[in-house]
UniProtKB/TrEMBL annotation:
PROSITE patterns: CYTOCHROME_P450. This is Cytochrome P450 4ac1. Keywords: Endoplasmic reticulum, Heme, Iron, Membrane, Metal-binding, Microsome, Monooxygenase, Oxidoreductase. It is found in: Endoplasmic reticulum membrane; Microsome membrane. InterPro entries: Cyt_P450, Cyt_P450_CS, Cyt_P450_E_grp-I, Cyt_P450_sf, Cytochrome_P450_Monoox. The keyword Membrane applies.
Amino acid sequence: MKNGSAVENSDKMLFALLVTPLLLLALWHLLNALNKKYFVLSLCKRVQTEDGSPLETKVVVIPGQTWFGNNLDLLNFTPASVFSFIRESTAKAEGKNYLWYFLFAPEYNVVRAEEAEEILQSTKLLTKNTVYDLIRPFLGDGLLISTDHKWHSRRKTLTPAFHFHILQSFLSIFKEECNNFITVLDKNIEGDLDLNQIIPQFTLNNICGKAYIISNRCNIEFSLLYIPFLETALGVKLDDISEGNEYRKAIYAFEEVFIQRACNPLMYYDWYFFLYGDYRKHSEKLRIVHDFSSRIIQRKRQQFKQKQLGKVDEFGKKQRYAMLDTLLAAEAEGQIDHQGICDEVNTFMFEGYDTTSTCLIFTLLMLALHEDVQKRCFEEVENLPEDSDDISVFQYNELIYLECVIKESLRMFPSVPFIGRQCVEESVVNGMVMPKDTQISIHIYDIMRDPRHFPKPNEFQPERFLPENTVNRHPFAFVPFSAGQRNCIGQKFAILEMKVLLAAVIRNFKLLPATQLEDLTFENGIVLRTQQNIKVKLAKRVK
Ligand code: HEM
């Protein structure tokens, strides 16, 4: 009996020895076959071409540094290393679009205008990607992040608030703020002017609060109490400087936490962020920001009711309101609630402040570094009427060369270096079948440095934007304000605001270099940042 069971056992062992490798081989083949369609170790479906041609003909797949796709490539990066990693990836892909594989979803990186066009024009790819979820606690379902019906109806409601006639009425506010700004510069002609300190205060004042704070060395005090953006888009003046200032600081701190999160893929998970991230700072700053916007809205609501704004003016035309009035009018008609208004106000404060200041900082730097360009701008603005009160929107529109300078600065240093979309269902994009949840990053920075569209892309050449030089350019090669349905609603506002400031600065001062481009380390944030503050010197122009 014993002998019989021993034989049986050895048969079993032999069987196992023969079958196990076969099973493993079969499993290996199965996994290999599965891995063609799915990136097994990244738990996501692969991108395929629509016509069955090799994927490499459409996109470069950048191999990850481990077997787990690109999941660990970005771990614990800093904002500066994220910026250089993205640029290196573009270089590795030799200017072609490229793919990464992350946990649960691929990421399609677009660096070419040709493919960006299809995405930005698509009516199906309007949903923002997961990076935007990190700012959702701040901006809620405001225009930047919302999607589908909510976004459509809000965009329709808010578009008239940026109509030419409304912009015209903002002009006097921009000018007043600008005059104050020039007075401040006049008092600080000595030494280097730290643009990162003073410009964000100007643009936030154009948004929400007047308080120029510059280091004691420069000796500028909390002197000005004026709030153009609140007054322009929002139609409110702040009485309390410290209130606006606390708000500005809270936004800055929120952005710092955002950057920390954005640099670590694990931090995208709320539970991980709650346990290991700066969750307390995040919540505290959000409370300050939200309380501030809520108070502004309450104040404006009172004024709105008191004024009893009618729906038609004396000529029977529908009245055009600034942004917050527009929202309050929509609230009166039951189209939006208090939370919706808060989300929009936060979105506009946020979108309208950092973006414009980043562009102004780089434009002033480039003017200081390029004397010939500055001279040409000076000749152009010199023709404007002496008294700034007499300068009309039309005259600002005619500052063609200054506009080229702003555009060239935006091309080289786009305030928003990348934007994101995602496929909410399996979709065909640029001839490839993208699985549901594929993340799409459109790298505006790289698109606008593509030498096929901008020869010698690292050279500052405003002439590229003179009308005669743009005729044959690809329409999506220059997209600092994005394009298509989800383009920037505030672009005309921004260009006018920047022209008013730049014209005034150039008329009054000669800008001289202090910071050189080589001194700067770039960082990826919500907007493009540099580790070092950017400085210029000023020399008063003799009239
Ligand atoms: C130089 C200045 C500016 C630049 C470079 C800029 C750039 C952009 C870009 C690239 C987008 C698309 C974002 C995306 O798809 O994720 C955008 C959207 C937006 N911008 Fe701007 N922006 C600027 C100024 C402004 C200003 C001054 C305002 C408000 C007054 C504003 C309000 C918005 C809003 C609300 C959106 C979302 C639009 C939508 O999705 O319907 N922006 N901006």
